[in-house]
Amino acid sequence: MKAIKWLMTFAMVLAVTSCIKKEPLNAECDIVAVTLPGDLLNRTPIIENDRVTLIVKNHVNITDLAPEFELTPGATIAPPSGTKRDFTEPQTYVVTSEDGEWTKAYTIAVQRNNAINLKYGFEDVKVTKSAQGGSYDVFFDVNINETTHQRDSMFWASGNSGFAMTNGKGAPDTYPTFQTDEGYVGKCACLVTRSTGSWGALVNKPIAAGNLFIGKFDLNNAIAKPLEATQFGTPFFNVPRYFSGYFKYTPGDVYQQFNASAPGKLEAIPGKKDECNIYAVYFESTADMEYLNGANVLSDDNPNIIAVARISEEMRKGASDWTYFHVPFVFREGATIDADKFEDGRYSIAVVMTSSIDGDYFSGAIGSTLFVDELEIICL
After folding, report:
1. Do 215 and 347 lie in a common domain?
2. How many percent of the chain have pLDDT more than 70?
3. Rounded distance, CA 30 to CA 70, Å?
4. Of 145, 1, 163, 155, nearest in space to 63 by CA
5. 258, 236, 229, 85: which is closest to 163 by C-alpha?
6. Which SS3 state, helix, strand or coil, does residue 160 take?
7. In the listed set 97, 112, 127, which residue is the last one of a domain according to the structure?
């Protein structure tokens, strides 16, 4: 009997010991949120895979900022959260996971309300490596602020990071959006509609149109809510009147429409031709609509939209040689600009380009190719 009691006690000790065994340490090393002390930010920080953009108000002295970070549980950051740094140039932070096995370097850039360029030549890119072993281009523009004479940078967004999850093992020119030397002047942006391979078809995302836009790409929503993943816009302290630039476009051979029951999830549509799209939207940024997205950026009933400039339907069908466009911003009926909101930086601009007009619905022609260069927003 004593032996049985001893065995039962031993078993209970083992059970208790197993229950209090420590959970494995967290291997994630991400920045979740960023804040600045005081009323300095004009927009919610743009947090991407390895880069954060802080959009501050015009009066802010960016040489002495102390961003504070929320990280994945247990992770640490160097320099520590709250450290004062000079953000005249982008600064690097390194996040280390709780288990100490993983690190990620983030570039933290600060952009003022009026830092956005009015001309874009696509001459500068940063090459970013993907977790799958490939690499892709991230376009950026450098601007010298006329008021402060300081250097500001604006990064363009694209769906390249989403493509990296499906078929992104190659060089930048195998991705949907990349830089090429074939520009109207110097280099330019090239957007190509690509197949996302077997994995993309598996998750009902069989193609990826080349796209490039001012705003951010929310990778966390790329699969579940793709229309919301493209978030368009940045503060704009001007009233736009015309949108111009150069482009050339060749649609792919076979237009295919997404069909979940079709082989490869794509169904050829005889006689239909792919189209590109290039447009700019001027809009009011509000608490419930800080950015526009793929579902509402051109909606006729979107009350936040002030004006839209878009290339013509005929141009969208194709242009074999470099072609100039100069289109007006057409103001929506009843839309007005409030002087106080304008001064406070509540109006934004979005510039959007894509190689397949229906690409956000995963339809288009693989191989459709759009070149874009020397864009300009002409203001009052």
Report:
1. yes
2. 90
3. 9
4. 145
5. 229
6. helix
7. 112
Query: Is the same domain home to 45 and 184?
Result: no
| Of 166, 176, 169, 109, the residue nearest 137 (C-alpha) | 176
Which DSSP symbol is given to 41?
A: B
**Residue 244 burial by Cβ neighbours in a 10 Å radius (0-12, 13-18, 19+):** middle
The residues that bridge with 250 in the sheet, in sequence order, are 369
- Residue 51, strand partner residues: 107
Domain interval for residue 81: 25-112
Task: Report DSSP state, residue 9.
Answer: H
Is residue 15 included in any domain, yes or no? no
Query: What does the alpha-carbon distance between residue 221 and residue 230 come to, in Å, rounded to a whole number?
Result: 9
CA torsion, points 33, 38, 41, 47, in degrees to nearest 10?
-10
Contact 49, 159 (CB under 8 A): no
Cβ count near 378 (within 10 Å): 16
* Within-domain flag for 10: no
Residue 157 bridge partners (DSSP): 213
CB 108 within 8 A of CB 95: no
d(CA 290, CA 44): 8
| Nearest 10 degrees: Cα torsion 183, 242, 350, 165 | -20
DSSP conformation letters of 79-139 = SPTT--B--SS-EEEEEE-TTSS-EEEEEEEEEETT---SEE----EEEEE-TTS-EEEEE
Backbone angles phi, psi at 50, to 5 degrees: -135, 20
Q: Among 29-33, 140-144, 336-340, which is the least confidently predicted range? A: 140-144
The secondary structure of residue 252, as a DSSP letter, is: -
363 vs 187: CA distance, rounded Å: 28
Whether residue 350 is contained in a domain is answered as yes
Helix, strand or coil for residue 68? strand
Could you report the per-residue pLDDT of 259-288, keeping only the tens digit for each? Answer: 999 988 999 999 999 999 999 999 999 999
**pTM given for the model:** 0.80
Q: Are residues 40 and 154 in the same domain?
A: no
The DSSP bridge pattern shows strands 211-217 and 230-232 to be: antiparallel
Contact between 107 and 68 (Cβ < 8 Å): no
Per-residue pLDDT at 161 exceeds 70: yes
Helices (H), 208-306: 226-229
Place of tokens 């894509």: 354
